[in-house]
Amino acid sequence: MLTGVSVSCFLLSYVVVLVVEASRFLFKLPGRSVVLIAMLSAGLAAHSIFVFNEMIVGVPSSAPELLSSWFQWAVIAAWGLAVACLILTIRNPDRAMGLFLIPVVLGLIGLAQLVREAPPFHPSTTVNLWRAIHGVSLLVGTMIICFGFAFGLMYLVQSHRLKSKVRSRGGLRLPTLEFLQSMNRSSLFISTVSLGLGLLSGIVLNLGRDGQIAWYSGGILFTVVLFAWSLIASLMELSSSSALGGRQSAYLAIANFFFLVVVLGLVLFSSHGIPPIPSTTVGFSQELLGQVTQGPI
């Protein structure tokens, strides 16, 4: 497999896609959809190779390390959104959905770079069914929330353009409000289910590893809060007869994203998933420190 692929390879492709999408505001470009699909495909190819090299090549088969660090988690989340962007661009080449999705992809790549040196998750839980369910569920929930954020923004922009009777400038076209509303609603419901499954598997994982659940630890507490908010947002969407209509779905999807950003920031500053320092090591360090401070006998 290719080993010279770095983050900058697919990052540059996605930046080019964003620039081409943004050029819709300025001028019409013949063959724009072809350029977008080609650059997205190139970026995804490099991205896929990078993910393969990062998580499979050189890793012992007895100890696979899928989603074993925040860096991998963010890179795969960006990859998933990029795949969705490519599919939507192929199916709707004249719609500027990449203008809203690619910035989120770039944001996740930036997050990955920020946490690249962060310690990996607890090694004893790397090869574990519940560990896999926990990581994948939260990853899917995060991707869906980011997806909903992009479509929520699209809905508000398109709604404003239609109400203001703004003509499409430079070929800037967005999906219909009905499609965008359905995507926002789906993102709310699917993310709630994914977060709930991630929370449940995390509880089982903690019980199996520690024999207890530290409800007030940062990672667990923040995950519970995020799931609770997502559940409330979904129930509001189901039971509401608000005159806001599709705008309510958009507002809830956007609020879901900002809530995720806050919770994710708090989790990153907590010790969630990071292996604790063994007590024997602590004891040895304290003993060594005592000998140093006392000096030779």
From TrEMBL:
It comes from the Bacteria. The keyword Transmembrane applies. The chain crosses the membrane at residues 6-27, 34-50, 70-90, 97-115, 135-157, 188-207, 213-238, 250-269. Keywords: Membrane, Transmembrane, Transmembrane helix. This is Cytochrome C assembly protein. It comes from Aureliella helgolandensis.
